[in-house]
Design goal:
eight-stranded mixed sheet; homodimer; 35% helix; globular; alpha/beta
């Protein structure tokens, strides 16, 4: 039919918006892996008018009440409209607005959708952004957050008891219930990320500041840090070539939890200078919560920011 | 970026669903113009497993409470996410599912969206399906319902007082309030329809059965009715060449309100026989409400059904 031909043509050529390339960053990871904290610092760094962030966990197919009668947790692909999520990721990457579903964590209900109109950059954080080949193809940079399980459990208990009204026992029971689906569906996404980010403590320690390790896979062009990292910064940060758990070679950047601020600051400024930005390094990087900073977090976020800004230049 | 290239390629070639052509029928018209009645008969004719129907008025940007503080009615384009409606129409035409927003007429609130997965055919009825060139291009057949205003007012009062909890005075006040926007935004869609359908009574009559006039514009290939309409059916139905209000030539089929059932039945069966269907003419055609039939409605629906089935063969 002649009508249908017109659709095809228009969809690929005539709309100015559709030829837009919006740099997109995926931050995947299990519940309470630190996705929101990292995203917030990045959005605050450039401003919400330049970065649109969204959570892909709003694509729940069932509300909390309905899930009670169903044999799976929200970590199961069948519990989510992942096909619609893929469709929306493609639309955002093409600069088109979407009407995004909304799941309320406080009431456990699905609510009125909201319009998400992509700004200059888009960050998508959630359980499933790296789920399929099609979803991954929508992103310029993909990150998987991989904290050791004891740390993630600690974070989840802290968050869910203070912000979501659960008891610690309920959170622990839920973590146990989710474990098989986390293994089956969430953790396999790690191998598809360009960057694996792990915050951890020195072996055997259960307190003290977290260090960060970034595995930089050769799937994208990482910043050249050779002029940034030298013998003078080695105490704070170092780069080495290692093999990942799967045996594949990868660059690993380690930022010490006890790194002195003046040294990490020097590294941050050097990375920042690569980006030709007029402003100083954004103060929002490294903020865990108001008043609490982490230099390993700041450097990690800066590397992600580097990738987003670099993607916008292509 | 290599990632982004992959998106473009996949979106246009690799998914089997995306190469699907789903025949789509638009039924546009003002509030209470008869859209739902016509749609229901068509869906019942082939079955909901073969025809997906949806109302495009769910794309309201504001709920009833919010609209109270705003200077427009739901008939204003700015009161609706028409860009998202266009996007969803394109996706449906390509055979892809959408997560459609939901507006509740009973509560006046925006609710949890629903998945609409297109079946073999799609009917979209609402205020705005013919609004833009892009939205029109998604359809194989477009219809505009154009009853005389007194009849539409009668229908709206009847429906809104019995099904939506308003008084007749409230409905009349609302009709008056909406009049400027109906003139500015709804009625101009009439000129873009392939078929304009008007149910009306004999001039000067305010009671009695409704006749139907279908203007068949030469924008699509209409069924050849020359072997169907003859001197023996002239009492029930006739075809003539006229000029539309804008002076443009158009075929007009008129089906008399008092047409004897045996004659309209003969015409219906003749049109139906063109479609190579095994089943008899569906009983759902012509049903206004359970137990009340209209032969002009039945013939009109049959012509729309003809177009949908014909579109599926291309």
């Amino acid at each position: 039919m002649p009508h249908k031909q017109v659709v095809m043509q228009r969809a690929s050529s005539t709309s100015a918006r559709e030829s837009t390339h919006v740099p997109m960053l995926a931050i995947a990871g299990d519940s309470a892996a630190g996705k929101t904290t990292i995203t917030k610092g990045l959005v605050d760094a450039l401003g919400a008018n330049r970065i649109t962030s969204m959570c892909s966990d709003d694509y729940h197919r069932y509300d909390r009440m309905e899930r009670k009668t169903l044999p799976f947790t929200p970590l199961h692909p069948d519990c989510n409209y992942l096909g619609v999520m893929e469709q929306h990721l493609q639309l955002l990457a093409l600069g088109q607005p979407i009407l995004k579903p909304v799941y309320s964590h406080s009431t456990g209900t699905l609510e009125r959708p909201v319009l998400v109109d992509p700004a200059e950059f888009v960050i998508v954080e959630g359980l499933f952004p790296l789920w399929s080949k099609l979803s991954r193809a929508c992103f310029d940079v993909t990150v998987y957050l991989d904290p050791p399980e004891p740390i993630r459990h600690e974070w989840k208990i802290k968050r869910d008891t203070t912000k979501r009204g659960y008891t610690a026992e309920q959170v622990l029971a839920e973590l146990e219930r989710r474990e098989p689906e986390a293994t089956a569906y969430i953790r396999p996404q790690r191998r598809h990320a360009d960057i694996v980010l792990r915050f951890s403590r020195l072996e055997g320690h259960s307190e003290g500041p977290l260090s960060a390790t970034l595995l930089l896979r050769p799937t994208i062009a990482h910043p050249d840090l050779s002029d940034v990292l030298g013998s003078d910064t080695r105490e704070a940060i170092h780069l080495k070539l290692i093999r990942d758990d799967d045996g594949k070679p990868v660059d690993a950047i380690h930022i010490h939890g006890h790194a002195p601020r003046e040294l990490t600051r020097k590294v941050e400024e050097a990375i920042w200078s690569h980006l030709d930005m007029d402003e100083p390094v954004p103060e929002s990087l490294g903020v865990i919560e108001p008043g609490t900073r982490s230099e390993p977090l700041a450097v990690s976020q800066l590397i992600l920011l580097y990738h987003m800004l670099a993607a916008s230049k292509h």
